[in-house]
Design a protein that fits this description.
The protein is mainly alpha-helical. It has one domain: Arc Repressor Mutant, subunit A (Orthogonal Bundle), CATH 1.10.10.10. The chain contains 6 helices and 3 strands, in the order ααβααββαα. The chain has a 3-stranded antiparallel β-sheet with strand order 1-3-2. The longest helix is centred in the last third of the chain and has 26 residues. The chain is globular, with a radius of gyration of 18 Å.
């Protein structure tokens, strides 16, 4: 593993940008929040994260697994069972993403009002 002594997310070539882009994605945030309660099956995740398509959920889970944030567990049962859970690294995102979610809920009315004011300008 290479070391990056000067990580700065504002620098165009900084590798931390890919991590920021991943966790700033709305579906990533919602999947991490959903998984913070414990392991879940794909169908349960899709039901919990309303509005996500199967394709986007699959891509999101694969990306999170690739980044070491989610672990996929396949069980040799009939019918086959697959569960997803946050890794130790993934659990470090729980508090920041929950805080963002709370902020969004607490300020939704203000944001909507600001949008309406902006959109009503000539």
């Amino acid at each position: 593993m290479s070391q990056h002594p000067e990580l700065n997310v504002l620098t165009a070539t900084c590798p931390s940008r890919t991590s920021l882009a991943r966790i700033a994605n709305k579906w990533t945030a919602m999947v991490v929040i959903a998984l913070s309660g414990g392991s879940m099956r794909f169908g349960d995740l899709r039901t919990t994260v309303e509005g996500i398509s199967a394709k986007v959920l699959t891509e999101t889970l694969r990306d999170l697994e690739r980044d070491g944030l989610v672990a996929r567990h396949a069980y040799a049962e009939m019918p086959p069972r697959v569960e997803y859970e946050l890794t130790d690294l993934g659990r470090t995102l729980d508090a920041p993403l929950r805080a963002l979610g709370r902020w969004a809920e607490e300020h939704a009315v203000e944001v909507i009002a600001a949008r309406e004011t902006y959109d009503a300008r000539p």
